[in-house]
Amino acid sequence: MRALVVVVLVACATTDPSVRLVDDWPAVSRPDDYQAVTSEWTRKSILRGEYQEALELSATFKSPEWRAAHTAKDIETRGLTGEARDQLVSAAQADAAGPYEVEMLVTTWDRTENDLDRGKRSVWHIALVDDQNHQIAPIEIVRDKRPPQVVHAEFPAFHDFTIAYIARFPRTTPVLGPGVHQVKLSMSSERGGVELVWKN
């Protein structure tokens, strides 16, 4: 068994903005809200080994607020009106009511360790952690196979050495809703781990 590597965790918890951890679809969302909302719902962390950076993680929680802002941007960009616009909004609301989703942008120093889509065979353990510290295992983690320029346009932290994943988690416990104070995303391996936190 390989020895554990001593790591230093670098996070931005002290400067992360508070967010509304609610499950309600916003009454109003404007196209120009998208960049600000994406920034508010994105968390970043770095895991360092003895000699180099082992992991860089940027994760955006696709809350109803984020989905509404993204939908408003899509409507404006595509010039949708009437029924086409209403269908896009309905589809986004249906997605928001489904499994919790997190867009994970992952960069690893060892490229073979960037393997989240291998499921239980991945070197990484991923979990969403609710307000009561219950760990929720993902239903699936799949690669975001859209063109790099499209992913970068939605998530500016994406760069040449990053792999984008979509992690989906079941609604076994209410991660968003009344009385919820925080939700966490945990990513760990024998190298160490990082934890991203969204708080009210």
Strand content: 25-35%
**Low-confidence runs:** 1-13
Please give the radius of gyration in angstroms.
Answer: 17 Å
Mean pLDDT: 90
Instruction: Indicate how many domains the architecture comprises.
Output: 1
Query: Sheet bearing the most strands, described?
Result: 6 strands, antiparallel
Helix count equals 4
Order of strands across the widest beta sheet?
1-2-3-4-8-7
Number of strands: 10
How much helical structure, as a percent, in the residues?
10-25%
Structural class: alpha+beta
Q: Write down the overall geometry.
A: globular
- The span between the termini is 41 Å
Multimeric organization: single chain
Characterize the structure shown.
- The strands form two sheets. This protein has a six-stranded antiparallel sheet with strand order 1-2-3-4-8-7. Strands 6-5-9-10 form a four-stranded antiparallel sheet, with no helix packed on it.
- With about 200 residues, it is α+β, with helices and mostly antiparallel strands.
- Helix 2 runs antiparallel to helix 3 (about 80-95).
- The chain has one domain (about 10-200).
- It has four helices and ten strands.
- It is globular, with a radius of gyration of 17 Å.
- The relative contact order is 0.23.
- Residues about 1-15 have low confidence and may be disordered.
Helices and strands in order, then pairings?
Blueprint: E1 8-11, H1 34-40, E2 42-48, E3 53-61, H2 64-78, H3 82-97, E4 100-108, E5 125-129, E6 135-136, E7 140-143, H4 148-154, E8 163-169, E9 182-189, E10 192-199
Antiparallel strand pairs: 1-2, 2-3, 3-4, 4-8, 5-6, 5-9, 7-8, 9-10
Helix pairs in contact: 2-3
